[in-house]
Amino acid sequence: MDAMFSLIGTPIAIETELLSGGAGTCPDAQDAFDFLSEKFTDGEIVAVTFRTGSEAVRYGLILRPRYGGQKLSSWLGTVELTTEDWRQYWDALLRFEALAFVCASDEEGVALTDCDLTLTSFPWDERQMLAGALRTGEGVTGWVIKERTTTRTVL
Q1: What is the model's pTM?
Q2: Rounded to an integer, what is the distance from CA 134 to the centroid of its chain?
Q3: Which of 4, 29, 77, 150 has the largest CB neighbor count within 10 A?
Q4: Cα–Cα distances in angstroms (integers) from residue 26 to residues 5, 6, 11, 18, 33, in the given order
Q5: pLDDT tens per residue across span 18-59
């Protein structure tokens, strides 16, 4: 959530999807971080959509592991931009040591599973992938980054 809030700022509305199948809203966007952390930890919330007032960010989304039957056992965050200038958001995300991977893509995002999270299986060449970054190993802070035309390792 730290990474999400750093990109979107304070949301104007927060919509939640509950484990029970219902929907809800967060009582106060200003206090959302603590509220949502507790509800995610308790397993009450499985997805959160953050609506923004930003012209550059349409929404942010966080999904719990294995949401909707997905084969991804880690938390997944998505930010939909309405600007072509994605690089500043990309650079900001790469500074978060807790993230295991980062993707920037055209149109729809890249669907990932646990099997995709190795250097040899990551979907580097997916049509919609603008850039991908994957940690180089367990507990390692460096990234392997591949953009449509380049590959580099950042330590």
Answers
A1: 0.87
A2: 13
A3: 4
A4: 15, 18, 10, 12, 10
A5: 888 888 777 566 677 778 888 888 888 999 999 998 899 999
Query: What percentage of residues in the chain have a pLDDT greater than 70?
Result: 90
Apex CA 58: angle with CA 103 and CA 78, to 5°?
A: 30
Report d(CA 34, CA 112) in Å as an integer. Answer: 28
Angle at 80 between CA 78 and CA 86, to 5 degrees: 100
Report the 10 Å Cβ neighbour count for 93: 19
Spatial separation of the C-alpha atoms in residues 43 and 82, rounded to whole Å? 31
**Rounded Cα gap, residues 15 and 23, in angstroms:** 7
CA distance 2 to 40: 14
